[in-house]
C-alpha cells in the first residue's frame, strides 16, 4: 500500500475544509485530478475514506486513521526540513498559525515582522478563527500553533502565556457614557451598535456573549475594519465594543472616548498553544519561543 505526499496533503485539505472542491483548491490541484486521486486511494485500501453528503464530506473510521498517520508523516518531514535548513539556504518552509482577532490585529503584526525578517525562507500560513475552533484545529494537526483566549478549554494541548487583551466601549465624545470611567455591558445593550462584518470571529464572540446573558444587540451597520467602525462612532452613529489597543489607536486621530467594561469576560488573557512544543519542526519551535518570549 503506497500513498505519496501529494495524496496525503490533499486528503488532509479535504478533511479540513469538508469539501473535495475546496480541498483540491487549497492543494493547488484541479478538481478532476483530486477526485481521481481520492478514488485511487480508496481503491488501494479497498474501503471508503470519505462519507459524501449534501453538506460536504466527512472521514470514515478508515479516513480518520489515514488522517492521523498522514499528519505524523508530514510533521516528521517538516521537522526534517527544519533541521536540514540550519545547514543550508534556499529551502522554503511554512508554519501554520491560527489566531483569534485580538492577536491578529494588535499583537502579531509587530511580533511576526521581526521574526519573518530574520527568517526569509520561512512563510507563515496565518488564519483568523474563534478560539474554540483553533483548539480543535491544533489538536487535530491542522495548525502548528494557535493563539487563543486562555479561558477556552485547551484539552490536551500545551500552552504558554502570550498577552492580555481588554474589551472597551468606544463612544462618541459627546455621548453620556463618555463621562463614565466604566460601565456594565448590560447597561449599554440598548444603545445602537456599530459592528464588524458577519463572519468575523470577534463579532461572533461578542454576539455570543450577548446571547448567553439574554441581550439582543441592535447593529446599525457592520464594517470590515476597526478604523471604519471608529469613524462611524466619531460621527455619532452608535457605539462599539473594541479591543483597548484598537480604541486607543483611534483616539489619536479621532474624537471619541473609551469606557472600561466591568464584565469579567472583557479582560482576556491570551495563550499560545501547541500539541507539543518540543516536537514542533525546528522553525515552528523557534517561532513559538519568539512569540512566548515577547508575551506582555
Concise structural overview:
45% of the residues lie in helices and 25% in strands. It is an alpha/beta fold.
Characterize the structure shown.
This protein is α/β, with parallel strands linked by helices. It has two domains: 5-82, Arc Repressor Mutant, subunit A; 92-296, 3-Layer(aba) Sandwich (D-Maltodextrin-Binding Protein, domain 2). Helices cover 45% and strands 25% of the residues. The protein contains eleven helices and twelve strands. Strands 3, 4, 5, 6, 7, 10, 11 and 12 form an eight-stranded mixed sheet that branches. Strands 1-2 form a two-stranded antiparallel ribbon. The chain has a two-stranded parallel ribbon with strand order 8-9. Strand 8 (192-196), helix 8 (201-212) and strand 9 (218-223) form a beta-alpha-beta unit. The longest helix has 25 residues, at 61-85. It is elongated and about 70 Å long. The protein starts with a helix and ends with a helix. 36% of the residues are buried.
Amino acid at each position: 500500500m503506497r500513498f505519496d505526499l501529494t495524496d496525503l496533503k490533499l486528503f488532509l485539505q479535504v478533511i479540513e475544509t469538508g469539501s473535495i472542491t475546496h480541498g483540491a483548491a487549497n492543494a493547488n490541484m484541479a478538481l478532476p485530478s483530486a477526485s481521481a486521486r481520492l478514488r485511487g486511494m480508496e481503491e488501494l485500501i479497498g474501503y471508503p475514506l470519505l462519507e459524501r453528503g449534501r453538506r460536504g464530506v466527512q472521514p470514515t473510521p478508515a479516513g480518520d486513521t489515514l488522517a492521523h498517520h498522514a499528519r505524523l508523516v508530514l510533521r516528521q518531514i517538516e521537522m526534517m526540513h527544519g533541521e536540514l535548513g540550519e545547514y543550508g539556504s534556499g529551502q522554503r518552509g511554512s508554519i501554520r498559525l491560527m489566531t483569534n482577532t485580538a492577536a491578529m490585529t494588535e499583537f502579531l503584526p509587530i511580533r511576526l515582522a521581526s521574526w519573518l525578517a530574520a527568517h526569509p525562507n520561512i512563510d507563515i500560513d496565518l488564519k483568523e478563527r474563534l478560539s474554540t475552533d483553533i483548539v480543535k484545529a491544533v489538536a487535530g494537526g491542522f495548525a502548528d500553533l494557535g493563539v487563543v483566549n486562555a479561558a477556552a478549554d485547551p484539552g490536551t494541548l500545551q500552552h504558554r502565556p502570550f498577552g492580555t487583551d481588554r474589551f472597551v466601549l468606544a463612544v462618541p465624545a459627546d455621548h453620556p457614557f463618555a463621562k463614565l470611567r466604566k460601565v456594565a455591558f448590560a447597561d449599554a445593550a440598548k444603545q445602537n451598535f456599530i459592528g464588524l462584518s458577519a463572519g468575523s470571529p470577534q463579532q461572533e464572540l461578542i454576539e455570543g456573549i450577548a446571547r448567553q446573558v439574554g441581550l439582543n444587540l441592535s447593529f446599525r451597520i457592520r464594517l470590515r475594519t476597526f478604523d471604519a467602525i471608529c469613524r462611524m462612532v466619531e460621527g455619532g452613529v452608535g457605539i462599539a465594543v473594541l479591543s483597548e489597543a484598537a480604541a486607543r489607536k483611534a483616539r489619536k486621530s479621532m474624537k471619541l472616548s473609551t469606557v472600561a467594561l466591568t464584565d469579567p469576560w472583557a479582560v482576556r488573557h491570551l495563550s499560545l498553544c501547541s500539541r507539543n512544543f518540543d516536537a514542533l519542526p525546528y522553525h515552528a519551535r523557534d517561532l513559538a519561543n519568539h512569540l512566548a518570549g515577547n508575551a506582555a
